[in-house]
Amino acid sequence: MSINSNIRSEFYLEEGITFLNHGSFGAVPRAVRVAQEEFRLQFERQPIRFALRELPVLLRSSATVLGEFIGANGEDIAFVENASTGVNAVVRSMIPHLKSGDEILTTSHVYGAVRQTLLYAAECSGAKLVEVPVPFPIETNDQIISAFEGAITNCTTFAVIDHITSPTGIIFPIEQLIAVCKSRGIAVLVDGAHAPGMVELNLETLGADWYTGNCHKWLFAPKGCAFLWTHPERQAMTHPTVISHKYLMGYTDEFDWTGTQDFSAFLTVPAALDFYQHHGGADLRSANHALALEARNIIATAWNKPHPAPDDMIGFMATIEAPVESMGTLQESLDLHDWLWDNHKIEVPVMPFDGKLWIRISAQIYNTRDEYEILAHVFDKNGL
Ligand SMILES: Cc1ncc(COP(=O)(O)O)c(C=O)c1O
Fold first, then answer.
1. pLDDT 10s digits, 16-31
2. Does the predicted model carry a pTM greater than 0.85?
3. Could you tell me the domains of the chain?
4. SS3 (DSSP) at 164
5. Does ligand 1 lie within 6 Å of residue 106's CB atom?
6. CA of 166 to the centre of ligand 1 (A)
7. Distance from the CA of 193 to the center of ligand 1, in angstroms?
């Protein structure tokens, strides 16, 4: 167990760039990529034996290992390519159970692609999508809970809650939000795209109906590795987005085969978890959290901006208002992103949210304090 200061060489990231966006797509360690390649070769050496005999066993054993890490029974875990697919499986499975006049509840911090999926479900079913505004900057969890609770009506039947928000990078109090939903008989899907690896999970006790999370963001898995956990009582109604041979033959059977594909990323979870634990596990989480707070401090001080959320709402990402004049439009966010990359080789997302532009930094073990200093001082002389 060690947190290695020369760790960057264990990743494929280019030299000479300031890479502050682990959050969007993660970055796979070389060791995990090598393990993935082995599974690809295993498929190629005897494809029929692999697909019929080896893959089913490997998938279930990978799910069991993942389950031990996220506090879940492996039989309740299905692999999906990404959180979008996990969300789609649940939301599309819900469509036949929604009726005209029902309300689907989410918040203004929802990920854009998830919002579109919910709009699709609303369009198909006649239900209404209700997006409750949650303020940002924010000071307390109670602001989130009371906004959310206040938006529930007798028509709310389904809620989709972020665990860690994309545009603002804050951790939502999902235990309390789920409890509110359950007390009103509302089905809950948690979008935990950023959570695995960033916060400790115990899905058995959380109380959600569904939880989807990415392993390719903060758990060091290769791209295309995510999971959908489904409460046993919801499994019969939950189907993958691609219906295949095993339709209606059981939750894991339906999800474990949705057509020929590259399964290697799913099978690499044990290798990714080995890397994660070897580099600290809980200590890695503390170190990344501390680095995110330090980075936010460096940047907010240089830009003379307040901290928009308390420390305990931050995980490995932090958002600071960009020190530029703007109306907070999408085009302005794209322009500022491109300016930072094209002129300074700084890769960092610029998020338009609530009429302002926000810069969301990530902290992963290969990042150093110096990189945040570069971003903090990039506006000093240059102007835009
Ligand atoms: C909150 C949230 N949900 C869903 C997604 C989609 O993840 P993916 O691209 O892996 O499907 C993201 C991606 O960043 C996200 O931040």
1. 999 999 999 999 999 9
2. yes
3. 7-29+280-382 (3.90.1150.10), 32-275 (3.40.640.10)
4. strand
5. no
6. 7
7. 5
